[in-house]
Design goal:
This protein is 36% helix and 34% strand. The chain is an alpha+beta fold. The protein has a domain of 96 residues: Alpha-Beta Plaits (2-Layer Sandwich). The protein is globular and about 50 Å long. The protein binds flavin mononucleotide (FMN). Flavin mononucleotide (FMN) binds next to helix 1, strand 3 and helix 2.
């Protein structure tokens, strides 16, 4: 099994991005991520980002270093980073959708720690990840 890892963060754009700028950012991310085996989703609303990246741990760390270094956003807060057994957004080298302010608020204030299911003796997805997958599925 590959050593899969997930990282979710929120951040604030240093300036309001128009559609063309977002598209260029996304295209660059898709190209990089395809080469690096990274999948995930990016949500945007009115200057606020939420992004989930997943893939081999070393690649997730390398990608996040690049993301953190970008001058296009600031105030990066990591909500979750942990090992996973399978990808959640395997079809998307970077899926993108707009979200509303309240959707981003709900997602960013959810519990992002994995829950240990005593009866199954296994860990299940965090509330945050379940909400994000549900949101993405219904976009
Ligand atoms: C919101 C956001 C999301 C990004 N997502 C990715 C990504 O998924 N993969 C990646 O390799 N780089 C990603 N980057 C980094 C950019 O592709 C690029 O390396 C960076 O924007 C270049 O630095 P600059 O923005 O300071 O010019 C992201 C950057 C931002 C601001």
């Amino acid at each position: 099994m590959t050593d899969l890892y997930i990282l979710v963060y929120v951040s604030t754009a240093t300036h309001l991005m128009d559609e063309a700028e977002l598209e260029a950012l996304l295209l660059g991310a898709v190209v990089q991520n395809s080469l690096n085996g990274i999948t995930g989703v990016l949500l945007y609303n009115d200057g606020d980002f939420m992004q989930c990246i997943e893939g081999p741990e070393s690649m997730v760390r390398e990608t996040f270093n690049r993301i953190e270094a970008s001058r296009r956003h600031t105030g990066i807060i990591c909500l979750c980073e942990e090992k996973i057994s399978e990808r959640n957004f395997s079809d998307w080298h970077m899926g993108y959708t707009k979200a509303t302010k309240s959707q981003l608020l709900a997602l960013s204030s959810a519990r992002w720690e994995k829950v240990v299911d005593e009866s199954a003796g296994a860990k299940k997805d965090s509330d945050g990840l379940m909400l994000l997958k549900d949101f993405w599925g219904r976009r």
